[in-house]
């Protein structure tokens, strides 16, 4: 059961990291297009 919890927390961390990265990549792309 502990292993399952660890994997769940890893997935949650990946989701938390993925959202800001996607947000930044979209703004970065928009910035390049504006230039």
TrEMBL record:
Keywords: Membrane, Transmembrane, Transmembrane helix. It comes from the Bacteria. The chain crosses the membrane at residues 12-33. This is Uncharacterized protein.
């Amino acid at each position: 059961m502990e292993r399952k919890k660890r994997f769940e927390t890893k997935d949650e961390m990946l989701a938390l990291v993925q959202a800001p990265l996607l947000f930044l990549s979209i703004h970065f792309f928009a910035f390049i297009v504006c230039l």
